[in-house]
Amino acid sequence: MDWQLPSDSEPSAFVSEALVESLRGTPPVTGAWRDGDPLGNRKFCQVGPMEFERGGSLPHVRLAYEVFGELNDAKDNAILVFHALTGDSHAYGPAGAGHPTGSWWPDVVGPDCALDTNRFAIIVPNILGGCQGSTGPASVAPNGVEWGSRFPYLTIRDQVQATKVLAEHLGIEQFHSVIGGSMGGMHALEWALMFPGTTRTLGLIATTAVTSADQIGVNSVQLEAIRVDPNFAGGDYYDEDEGPSKGLALARRMALLNYRSPSELNERFERSWQGTRSPIGDSGRFAVESYLDFHGNKFTRRFDANSYLCLVQAMNSHDVTRDRASLPEVLGSLTLPTLVLGIDSDRLFPLSQQETLAAHIPGTLDGQQKAVVLSSPYGHDGFLIESEAIGREISRLLAS
Length: 400
Fold this sequence. Notes:
Blueprint: H1 17-22, E1 43-51, E2 57-68, E3 78-82, E4 109-110, E5 115-116, E6 121-125, H2 156-169, E7 175-181, H3 183-194, E8 199-205, H4 213-227, H5 245-259, H6 262-269, E9 273-274, E10 285-286, H7 287-299, H8 305-316, H9 327-331, E11 338-343, H10 351-360, E12 372-374, H11 382-385, H12 387-399
Parallel strand pairs: 3-6, 3-7, 4-5, 7-8, 8-11, 11-12
Antiparallel strand pairs: 1-2, 2-6, 9-10
Helix pairs in contact: 2-3, 4-5, 4-8, 5-7
């Protein structure tokens, strides 16, 4: 659950009036990528019909994905990377046609980086239910109308199952590593549990084995912010003049408060004003308010409200013990080399959750069954910002 864009995942900064002006005007009804838009570096895998864990089905599913680096003849140099909540397949590369923004992990994926595209083929799908080329609520159904409110409930396991078809499509029987951060860490963890033996190593970054009540509670408020927007129209807003941009922007503002640490926001903004008008009774604004508002409005131009609901609900479903066994038994089956990394200032996925993972996974690096702790002032988003430290630990995982 992070910003996923370079300009959004940098340390917090004041928003200039010029930037505020750049987002004037009504946002699009949806920020989803649509058929007919420039492809960019996207490729597509036709998954076919799917039935889902909690009921419901789709007559056809496709996944958008990108490959960075070359898959060798033996197809044993592939690394699967799962993105976080609002990410997409563009983990590496500049902005351009089809990719209005640059990559979200530019200093971790690339030539001579930890995920070295000179050595490995980095496979990054846009997860099922996303809005950047994969089948999601903004996709057009067989009757010529967007799925909207008819889109089925997805779980993390459903999304992983669709990604397994992508691996088969590419002819990959075993990945060198499967890695994910935040929600992507949930997918990586489920991959290892659902398909044992299909990856040699595992990277779990700022994630959890079970979505907690606290996290579900935070998520529920964001979901409700979208649903109460009058323009949400029960999820069927695609033919309207305006979409639920206010609700989506508000949900994003709520989320950002959990992506960053209190210390960073306090030190960066203190009680500064935005502009010259006082926020104390003179209709002015605090700088931190403007910062949150700007990024919320910016988000509505690149995401879809229904997709946000779908993906957050999938996060809420996450529980590796569901229909399996106890947590120690489930995690105890992971004997492959595993990186479990947490961030000391993360208030969204607190360090205690990574400590729980590491305590029960016998394959943790160094055999200590302890999480690697990254000290960072940037909270949950530290896994995007602290590229050097993250890259160092991923390199250690791949060398194991």
